[in-house]
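Worked example 4.2. Below are the chains of a multi-component assembly; read each line carefully before continuing.
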Amino acid sequence: MMRDEPWQRGEIPGPIKAIVLRDSKVIASLLKKARRPILVIGYMVERFSKEGVDIYEFIVQLSKLIDLHVVATGRHVNVLRERGVESVALIPAMELLDRISDPQWSGLDGRGQYDLLILLGFPYYYEWLILSRLKHYAYSYLKTLTLDPYYHPNATYTLVNLPIGAWSKLLNSVIEHLMGR
Amino acid sequence: MAKTSIKIGELKTDIGVLKNLEITIGRIVRPWEEPEGPTPFPTVAEIRDWDLKLLSRYKPVYMPFCDLCCLCTFGKCDLSRGKRGVCGLDISAQQSRIVLLACCIGAATHTSHARELVEYLIEKYGRDCSIDLGVDVHVEAPHMRLVCGVKPRTLGDLEEVLDYVESQIVEMLASTHIGQEGDSLDFESKVFHVGMLDHVAMEVADIAQVVAMGYPKADPEAPLADLGLAVVDIGKPVILCIGHNIAPGAEIIDYLERSGLSGSVEVCGLCCTAHELTRYTRQAKIIGPISWQVRFVRTGVPDVIVLDEQCIKTDIAEEARKIGAVVISTSRKAFHGFPDKTNEDPDKIVEELISGIVPGVFISDPYKVGEVAVKAALKIAPKRRKYKALPSKEQIMKYAEKCRKCRECERACPNSLPISKALSMASKGNLDKLAELYDYCIACLRCENSCPMGIPIFSLIEKAAERKIKEERFKIRVGRGPIQDTEIREVGRPIVLGEIPGVIAFVGCANYAEGGKELVEMCEEFLKRRYIVVVSGCAAMTIAMYKNEEGKSLYEIYPGIFDAGGLVNVGSCVANAHISGAAIKIASIFARRKLRANYKEIADYILNRVGACGIAWGAMSQKAAAIASGFWRLGVPVIVGPHGSKYRRALLGRREREEDWYVYDAWTGKLAYVGPVPEHLFYMAETKEEAMVMAAKLCMRASDTTKGRAIKLTHYADLYKRFFGTLPPDLHLFIRTVADIPITMKDEIMEYLKQVGWKENPMPRPDPTLLEEMIRRREK
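Applying the procedure described above to all two chains together yields the following structure tokens:
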């Protein structure tokens, strides 16, 4: 299962494919190097949470360790607020996609476009298409990183398909590296 | 208006004798009090300027489904990141080209369906069969009037309309050929054109069957019908009709009546044919929407399966073979590999089917299908009793033990359902997780096709959910067809002024990401809030499939009237034309705008005044794409569920681009800012909460009165707050004056408005239009 091939078998895009990240240190380094990162969280985080991964805690930690904007696309915004991510913005995925693929958009704070979009917790096919748009229309200024436990060919950077336990460990390890441990 | 033919066997004149003289007059314009508008039988060129106005506000946001184009032998061409193919197209144009292709397929399918129906009905009831939809429906064909400038009086009049639609679809399809259209926005304009044609074709199909076949005619009290897997009496022979075309099913019912066999055979339907059967007769039952095909066939209950057209699972004949049922295909569009027995003796065909010489037959004559289906069902049913059972629990455990946990099933599942885990538990005797999957599974069988161990996964899910299946008995209101003129007269004003918060249409297929229950929850929410809720097709069936604590479905709780709090089932897919038709009729009946060949004015009216929004939560087909396109051109926004993102592009407005939200005030010609209403034209929601909030927002219109806007804002803000905990961050954009603010939230909203620096709009309620030609006088 730990292979760099689309999680949903039919979702094969074309010639441009993602760079696979297997090392948590590299992921942490990528997150640290980003000048203006934005983390966008879909409702599937609820499903991960039910499967025993404390994904909310990962998001809380990440938002403390990295200077990034956090966006939730649905009802899970309430959990994130409860867990202390006070700055989380609620923006539907399609509306955000439209803006983030517009080089003229000035971002949530009016300071300009982002350079790294981190995605987490969307239905596979839905995220696949979001990443497809960004791959074709925003590639000149935006890199994309998906932290879902799947290989996403349309991202700039992706993980491989991972069992939930291995994925959880990897995310924890990213946090450890960001903490400098 | 009709084609008229004169045939003369022999005519003696001074100059000679003419034999077998035949004269056909193409078109007779019958008198009609309404003057003809500017665009009768329009080509795409004549409405293009309207399309481009819409597309300048609602820009396509493409999400390429593939980086490549593989439509010609120059290719495959890599279109990624700005590259162009050999033909010159870039990836935006390629996406819109594929959307156009999909819509052409969808519209061609409805049109072909309409053509077959009209031919069948003319043969059966005559070309002069009157278009009479009852005393309460005078604007009988809003689309035909609006688009073609035609007021049909008889079935024969519908042929000319179909001639026009067919020729236009061919033209649009031709524009997708290599070396034709090159601009993405012009492809989009053609998508709109095909959508408009699609609604005309659907209207032809539904009107024809309503008037000729005695369906309910705009009846808000159309009867309730039985729906569900458990409504079928398995003690009787069972005929299952799948598809959309009523002709074979109607002939089965008629044959049963002619033969005195009514009541001795169960006739049930799946997908839209089921709607049509219950509109035709009280004897028929509905099994369920499209995704119930395999569910029902795997129960082993159907003895004879009659396939007509559209949305049929094309391997259903294989499924039928496994349960020993026989299949009759009836449409030239779908032979399914069966021999053509149209001209053979019915008894001989029955013998061949029963003896297993052939697993199925093709019969194009619906009349003969009626006889063969009934006779075959009566003969084969006693021999098939052993098939009418699901696997035992022991068999499930045995199969589940074979699972290697490779998760190929989950990777194949459109919704990535946790099948491996459920199988693991089943192997230990616990079927609970498998049974849970039943509510979310769309029975596509991709899991089974991918399983290296050949486990019949769906059958196991179905068996685990056997108790649920036995309780699948629901009530649905039979499709009523059009909306009455009198109903439009009652609600036109409150809709246009905003006092009825909106019309929400739940339409489309059953490709749900999180099960059908979400659709029911959304529907109930808007009914409780006293929106007008209109439903059709598979969505209308799904909505019936849940009961409240008293055991009642929404159809038993809410009335079938087109009014606030009404739940209106118009019928099958082709009845969707009555939903868009209702919006057109508001312009005609309430606002007295002229319909005849006056498309742009009416679309402009609907966009700016009629607070309506479609939700196609499980849309999956090309037909659904065409239907949505027809709504867009009329200015009605459509929301789809997450799987709808695979339609490749959204049509999104940008609320912060102030310049996009100006209209003309038709009284003065001055430009007036009206805010982002409606904000989007085609939107893919990720969750039901997002869809509900968005639908409430998309019902706002420039013409809303302050009272109406306050009502709409109440629902928008209340839903947003309930789901997301705060006031909507864009609320100020929809408040034009203090009088728009909902009284119940006034303090909170005033505080919010202070924070965002809101100012009153100096021109809050213009007479809104995007069309310069609608300006009555220009002020300097």
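Take a moment to check your reading of the output against the notes. Chain B touches chain A through 44 residues (CB under 8 Å). The mean pLDDT of chain B is 95.
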